């Protein structure tokens, strides 16, 4: 990570201001939420030169669906997809709105961020048609003119665009359609579908979801360009967090620093609620408080990722608040880094993710023996492995798919799995070219985990030297998480922020050498 990352000279977005409050409390016309705020100058050239490949995405879904249709090749010619975007949802008993989040299947099939828009795809002609909510006087008065059909047609990879009142007429022209697959009917109310069409709608169908998920699993070049860009935004935001300790005196300041820098770079939202914890709280996997003082703590953990064009990143870094890792913190850090380095080196098409996950546990066991936390003189590594004792320190999976969702579709986890090794592994399949996933091993010292995984299981507890373990409780935990693209040759690590502990110390120390007034902090 070079120091140029400090100069976050990314221009602010100048896109038109969006107001989405209306007198009626309903507004479907907020156009393209994810694009308007993006700083155009910093958008990758490929994204500038190309449209979001919506038609290819529909065709991918068609191909996967074809493998599931029992009637064979011709049956697909009578199939259509009808998917509705999310509406803007009001907050209860007031005239404000929940933050709009486009429904991810709809976005995958259209690339369109307009609330309550509808997408129709005819598998026979491979035509993609979009229907927009009709113009509403109140909406225009309060929120400005929405995008018109001709603008939508120009901007997006669609064949035809109409207003919603033409939905029945246009769909009625497709006499070949016998099955109209949709995800669910949750947003169907405004469609006013006629009976004939309503009769052929099939919702919540396993084959359709399978086809959607398998299509979303493999990222194309356009999606990869977005993911690389959002990874870059996330890198700089993590760098900013590590560099700003003089103005971070509470966990919430860490979250604020990350969110501020992500937004300045054009990320309107974050991919998920950031996890910002310090000291023993680093042992809580999905810590949500983000509000404790950093005073008198040694360690911190931040798990945060920006979101851009509805695609996310998911990165975790751990750094010492003093600028120097304590001995125990460093030992755990090196353990986790070794788990990540060794498993990452093996990431390539054809490798079973379960195998790398198991390998990460075996590496952890070796390190915990070396540190004296596990009793290596009394028990063999195999006995420890068989007992699942390492799950007390590493209860989650090695990683998960990532894309439009932070825990993306098509991982086929089994949360009912009785084996603690696999219960929380969110990806249960072979790696394939074009998959994007995280590699995020961890090691934690958490009272609750000790109670549940050790104290309640004497056969595991006897393998642990509790006196040695106690010395590590103040570390809380370490997780190192990078975002990986599987390539033909192996992998590409899209995450650029360093995880080298020496480099991290340097970054933190450089920040600590500054004064509060060296930062842009008004309050
Ligand atoms: Mn993650």
From TrEMBL:
<dbReference type="InterPro" id="IPR029149">
    <property type="entry name" value="Creatin/AminoP/Spt16_N"/>
</dbReference>
<dbReference type="InterPro" id="IPR036005">
    <property type="entry name" value="Creatinase/aminopeptidase-like"/>
</dbReference>
<dbReference type="InterPro" id="IPR052433">
    <property type="entry name" value="X-Pro_dipept-like"/>
</dbReference>
<dbReference type="GO" id="GO:0070006">
    <property type="term" value="F:metalloaminopeptidase activity"/>
</dbReference>
<dbReference type="InterPro" id="IPR000994">
    <property type="entry name" value="Pept_M24"/>
</dbReference>
<dbReference type="GO" id="GO:0006508">
    <property type="term" value="P:proteolysis"/>
</dbReference>
<feature type="domain" description="Aminopeptidase P N-terminal">
    <location>
        <begin position="52"/>
        <end position="192"/>
    </location>
</feature>
<keyword id="KW-0378">Hydrolase</keyword>
<keyword id="KW-0464">Manganese</keyword>
<keyword id="KW-0479">Metal-binding</keyword>
<dbReference type="Pfam" id="PF05195">
    <property type="entry name" value="AMP_N"/>
</dbReference>
<keyword id="KW-0645">Protease</keyword>
<protein>
    <submittedName>
        <fullName>Similar to Saccharomyces cerevisiae YFR006W Putative X-Pro aminopeptidase</fullName>
    </submittedName>
</protein>
<dbReference type="Pfam" id="PF00557">
    <property type="entry name" value="Peptidase_M24"/>
</dbReference>
<dbReference type="InterPro" id="IPR007865">
    <property type="entry name" value="Aminopep_P_N"/>
</dbReference>
<keyword id="KW-0031">Aminopeptidase</keyword>
<comment type="similarity">
    <text>Belongs to the peptidase M24B family.</text>
</comment>
<dbReference type="GO" id="GO:0030145">
    <property type="term" value="F:manganese ion binding"/>
</dbReference>
